[in-house]
Amino acid sequence: MNKAQRGVEKRQEKGNVRGLNKIASVLQLPAAVIAGVAHMEVSGNHEVVLEGCGGSLTPEETALLPMGAKVMTYECGMRFLMDYLQGDRYFKIHRDGQNLDRARTQLTLVADMERKMQQMQDIVRKAAG
Length: 129
Hints:
Number of strands: 0
Order of helices and strands: HHHHHHHH
Number of helices: 8
């Protein structure tokens, strides 16, 4: 048994419910909502993402991939917005308003992901087998 497989067993032994509850708490969502989320494609490379993990993702972790992509996109949008509001000190810009445009783009992508969440879930469900 390799290190990744031992890690999976260890997480399963501890119970994945605690992890889901923690994520639900951070996102301020009911645990039932988080537990019901399932799967997604990442930049057209769903097989690479899932196979690249070498079977070390639990079903719960795999199910959180779509929500994770959405949250990361939202976070990036908020970082661009915060940088814009603080005078463009973190992200390099080449024109005025660039970080605001970046924020709008990321938040538009979040809205699109919300509309397509079922498709994302179906893709990962299929890829995960």
